[in-house]
Specification:
The chain has one domain: Roll (Ubiquitin-like (UB roll)). It contains 1 helix and 5 strands. The chain has a 5-stranded mixed beta sheet with strand order 2-1-5-3-4, with no helix packed on it.
């Protein structure tokens, strides 16, 4: 199980990119943190999620 923004999901073995493809996040406007470390966008396709990982996905919102 992987905890994403506080919710447990059974997605161990998938990459960050594979997970994001199943969501409505705009990949140009998010940051992903895995176990307290920022995951560079260039590494989303190679970063494999493991049991016990904790992921935070933060969406940036513009305003004025």
């Amino acid at each position: 199980m992987v905890k994403i923004n506080g919710e447990e999901l059974n997605i161990a073995g998938k990459t960050v990119a594979e997970y994001l493809a199943t969501t409505s996040y705009d990949s140009k406007r998010i940051a992903v943190e895995r176990n307290g470390e920022i995951v560079p966008k260039a590494q989303y396709g190679e970063t494999v999620l493991k049991d016990g990982d904790s992921l935070e996905v933060v969406s940036f919102v513009g305003g004025g």
